[in-house]
What we know:
This protein is α/β, with parallel strands linked by helices and about 475 residues long. It is built from 17 helices and 13 strands. Helices cover about 40% and strands about 15% of the residues.
Amino acid sequence: MYLEEFLESATIIDLQAALSARRFSSRDLVLFYLQRIAAFDSGGPALNSVLELNPDAIFIAEALDRERMHTGPRSQLYGIPVLLKDNIDTGDKLHTSAGSLALANSYANGDAFLVSLLRQAGAIILGKTNMTEWANFMTQGMKNGYSSRGGQVLNPYGPGQFDVGGSSSGSGAAIAANLATIAIGTETSGSIVSPANANSVVGIKPTVGLISRSGIIPIAHSQDTPGPLARNVTDAAIMLNVMAAVDPGDPATWNTAELRADDYTAYLDKDGLNGARIGIPRHYYERLDAERLEQVDAAIASLRAAGAVVIDPISVPSAEEKADISVLTYEFKPALNAYLGQLSPHVPVHSLRELISYNQQHAETMLKYGQTILVNSEATSGKLTEPEYINSRLRDLRQTREQGIDAALATHELDALLLPGAWNASLAAKAGYPAICVPAGYLANGCPMGVTFVASAYEEPVLIKLAYAFEQATKHRQPPRLKN
């Protein structure tokens, strides 16, 4: 009971202090999380958020405990159990499948670059999380959190009642249910901030290129990024410290050495909202129902109470422009073919065309929701030479950067924009700019609600400062009440 209560509210900093004081061990942590997975994820409400467990996790924890006794921790992540989304490669006994039965027996050739950084820091890879199949880029109408390999992920705040968010659904639900200390998700458009919003956790979608994309099953090179999901802003910032690094194999990261912060935890300032200028782009609030609008307005009032200068409303020049996914449709085919083409011969698919065929041959298990997006992507050339693609890509950058986020920030001299929940996540996603979603309370029926701070490229320090100050001023997050 002590460990359960402690871990629900503890930060990684608290855990490291307790581990160094030998109040418990990393082995104890792993055993605790395994017990909770058995009680609530496989049993009880059957959240179905953890797809696969690392059979070596206990052994790794024991080795790290011994190393801690002799030489101390290597980093703040030392001996901390981490869950990874199932589209992130690990060169161990865990599969990497993007939730698809087509890759159910696929082992990666090695660790994703970010996983190698986690291991070097001493993190314990506890397992893989379930996800929306192919990161929700398979078909229109697929339910968030569903995959042919893993089934349906449930929201711990209302299993079967509330949306679990996508596509890092398992990562968000698992952290909300306290099944690991922290998890890694990926986002192309909304797939980190959406499960953060739905599961009352913190999610950081970094600037594209802050964290390496190497060894991650892709959608689109222009928007893909991994990022942390945590129960508090502190833990998410600690994860950025470990994962933000230059990867020689990923050109998007080549600016990271110059533009990343030396220490993201240095921006955990409880007074960080005092004097900050936050813009409210009301155009993006128009689809909210009355209760959600009231919830977000209460969050805005909290910003003011904490000393923020709130500019409400502001305009985003390109706000009326219609968003589309044509860039993703074009980029998916060459990106996925490059990944599938290097898989072992025993894997049944090595191209998007073979995947579509495999799904058709096993339609009963593979095509519960169809595969319209896969088919549309296969119809492209795969060469990225189409005028529609090039013009769409340039338009996305113009509308979300020069005529979008940057324009709004400059015109009103803002530190950040505030968006409701995960609505309009495509704004930061298309720009490749950072966003952080933090809990903002609950609706009358218990459904979680968050708010998302958005800023310009490599402004993670600003967002961490604002989100942390909001978190500390409001302390909205409450753990779900799970029964086994």
